[in-house]
Design a protein that fits this description.
The chain is α/β, with parallel strands linked by helices. The protein is built from nine helices and ten strands. The protein is elongated, with a radius of gyration of 20 Å. The protein binds S-adenosyl-L-homocysteine (SAH).
Length: 268
């Protein structure tokens, strides 16, 4: 039973990470287990929800592009109502709540109603997906930094400035980019990136459905189509996208996967 009451109307905005529950923060796992009401995006892995109490109410409020989805306004109303009713409300989002997650809008809506919000960061897909296939996004031998960019331009929203990004030497990590990969690659080449710049796509990272495709800017879109890569996927563009492939090939060929030994208790 969750005996703790939510006396002062508060919502916990929690990052659920990319998939595997082992990648949750300790705080996220604890809050999920203690929640009375969970409002969950559809990118949140089912295995994460197994940590919730059997008595908790789990409400799916997904917003996947092109699917029937709950309006943002309704999600705000629901959070406000449940928090005011004194319930421990956890708003659970894939990855990190503040990285392409509308977390900022939700914080504003809740605070405007006098509801406290605590944000618990999560591991964002833009970090987790490249890492899953051995790509170090800021390897200093290749890139001075990394830019997280959306590949999805909403009506009226500001799209990325691809020619400026092309001119930078930054690794580009593109969220929501699968459907627009051809246009993105073309814009980057027109902006001056070499057509043979390495590119990679990682879909459903840290889930049993994880897949990766390695290509170049010139071949990215056709490689995605040929391999049937679907959302959710992260695109990585830049020299770093050629790294890590050997490690993964070794694992695929049956190299033993290292397991973590339980740490010895006490201080050595
Ligand atoms: N807040 C989330 C991002 C939400 S936007 C985060 O921080 O990760 C949704 C996009 O995130 C997807 O279209 C995809 O580009 C990416 N994404 C989320 N989970 C992913 C996963 N497990 N593997 C690959 N990409 C993922």
């Amino acid at each position: 039973m969750n005996a703790i009451r939510n006396e002062q109307a508060r919502v916990w905005l929690v990052g659920a990470g990319p998939g595997d529950p082992e990648l949750l923060t300790v705080r996220a796992a604890r809050l999920i287990a203690q929640a009375e009401v969970l409002l969950v995006d559809d990118l949140v892995d089912r295995r994460v929800l197994e940590l919730a109490s059997p008595e908790a109410r789990v409400l799916a409020v997904g917003k996947r592009g092109g699917c029937v989805s709950t309006s943002q306004r309704f999600i705000h109303t629901l959070m406000i109502r449940e928090a005011r009713a004194g319930h421990r409300v956890v708003r659970l989002k894939g990855g990190d709540p503040f990285v392409f997650g509308r977390g900022g809008e939700e914080v504003d809506a809740l605070r405007a109603e006098g509801i406290e919000v605590e944000v618990v960061p999560g591991i964002t897909a833009g970090i987790a997906a490249p890492a899953a296939v051995g790509i170090p996004v800021t390897d200093r031998r290749c890139a001075p930094g990394v830019a997280f960019v959306t590949g999805h331009t909403q009506d009226g929203g500001a799209g990325a400035d691809w020619s400026a990004l092309a001119a930078s030497r930054l690794t580009l990590v593109v969220y929501m980019g699968v459907a627009h990969a051809a246009a993105i690659a073309q814009a980057l080449v027109e902006g001056g990136r070499a057509p043979d710049t390495p590119a990679a796509a990682i879909s459903a990272a840290h889930t049993p459905q994880q897949r990766q495709v390695r290509a170049t800017l010139a071949t990215l879109a056709s490689a995605l189509a040929a391999h049937g890569v679907k959302s959710p996927a992260i695109l990585v563009i830049g020299e770093v996208a050629a790294l890590g492939a050997d490690t993964l090939a070794a694992v695929a060929a049956g190299a033993p996967t290292p397991t973590l030994a339980a740490p010895a208790r006490g201080v050595a």
